[in-house]
Amino acid sequence: MACALLFNRLLPFSHRLTRTSVCFLSIFLSYLCYCALFSAYTDMQKSGDLTPSCQRLLPDGAKRKSLSCVLPMDARPSSVDVSRLKTKDQRPSSTLHIPRNDTPSAPVGYVKFGNKKLPNAIIVGVKKGGTRAVLEFIRIHPDVRAAGTETHFFDRNYDRGLEWYRGLMPRTLESQITMEKTPSYFVTKETPPRIAAMSRDTKLIVVVRDPVTRAISDYTQTLSKTPDLPSFQELAFRNQSLGIVDTSWNAIRIGLYALHLENWLQYFSLNQIHFVSGERLITDPAGELARVQDFLGLKRIVTDKHFYFNRTKGFPCLKKPESSGSPRCLGKSKGRTHVQIDRDAIEQLRDFYRPYNVKFYEMVGHDFKWE
């Protein structure tokens, strides 16, 4: 159109030109128009216009009425681009077809680091001993990654298989340690052989506490969930007047540490098991964590600068990290006031546990002084 208009403007002068000159002039004007159109098309491509050029796809040699527009993966339009295309071309979707990719993709710039590995170390017990505190404290270390919730794989979900278990683990780099904690493992007879079948090199951490105090703490937690629970004495004794303790009650049975440890030593050597004192974890968290780091072969990075003692809760909390607005303490279920138990019942339980405690001290080579 532009070429025709330009030629009409020059037409009055054409009577002065020979036929040959007119032909050359026409060719020259056509060339100029071609250059102008080609330049405009190139500029549109450089501007990032993602409008696809559609071609008829005839896979079976038959004619098809619809058009299929195929773009390379790195040039497929986003939802914003698709909206722009629809605005420019209001034809029905059967005419203009943009292939969908229903598989979710990671955000631009996001890269998944590391792999999910079976744990190198497991906190296997004991309930109400301080396992959550140890997990939260040790995971401050940059070389430790831990599953946040109790997996109960080796005692409740073993039939799901190791790949299911691996899927619960966080991603870790080659230099990092993968951990999990499930306190019921220590008192479950089937757990030691199952962990050994996974790896005999697994490092085990057991957080122990005065078994009498631990039993009262266990009862207090259960009572908060079941208010109509019988009294502590009714559950702890078959006959309190005779001092006969009911070892079938789980809260009592857990405190028989020596008996449970004998089961573990059939599958793991003692140097693969580290015992954390629940009492010292409260009075000296940095000291206990230093020993845990040594046991795991880690540099001592978690130190006393990370802790402060919360007098309201009665146990240490983590100091405010630079990236957080407040200190980090364990949940409301930690540090609750224990139920008051009759003094005679406590003394009877101490007499009951004493021989088991002495045997446990001898087995691990350490006196925890639970008196």
Automatic annotation (TrEMBL):
Tree of life domain: Eukaryota
Protein name as it appears in the record: Sulfotransferase
Taxonomic placement: Eukaryota, Metazoa, Chordata, Craniata, Vertebrata
Family, similarity comment: Belongs to the sulfotransferase 1 family.
Covalent S-S links between cysteines: 317-329
Ranges in coiled-coil conformation: none
PANTHER family named in the record: HEPARAN SULFATE GLUCOSAMINE 3-O-SULFOTRANSFERASE 2 (PTHR10605:SF10), HEPARAN SULFATE SULFOTRANSFERASE (PTHR10605)
Keywords noted in UniProt: Disulfide bond, Glycoprotein, Golgi apparatus, Membrane, Signal-anchor, Transferase, Transmembrane, Transmembrane helix
Membrane-spanning ranges: 21-41
Residues annotated as the enzyme's active site: 128 (for sulfotransferase activity)
Residue stretches making up the Sulfotransferase domain: 120-354
Catalytic class of the enzyme: transferase
Major subcellular site: membrane
Subcellular location: Endomembrane system; Golgi apparatus membrane
Membrane topology reported for the UniProt record: Single-pass type II membrane protein
GO molecular function annotation: [heparan sulfate]-glucosamine 3-sulfotransferase activity
Native source species: Mastacembelus armatus
EC number(s) stated in the UniProt entry for this protein: 2.8.2.-
